[in-house]
Amino acid sequence: MDKKFETTRKAGIYGIIGNIFLLIIKAIVGFVTKSQAMIADSVNSAGDIFASLMTFIGNKISSVPNDEDHNLGHGKAEYIFSMFISISMILVSAKLLYDSIITLIFGSKLKFSWFLVIVCISTIVIKFSLYLYTKKIYKKNPSILLEANMKDHRNDCVVTTFTLISVLLTLFNIYWFDSIVGIGISIWICYTGVTIFIESYNVLMDISIDDKTKQNIFNITYSYKEIQNVLDIISTPVGDKHLIFITISLDGNMSTFESHKLADNLEKDVNKLDKVYKTVVHVEPV
Question: What is the reported pTM?
Answer without folding.
Answer: 0.68
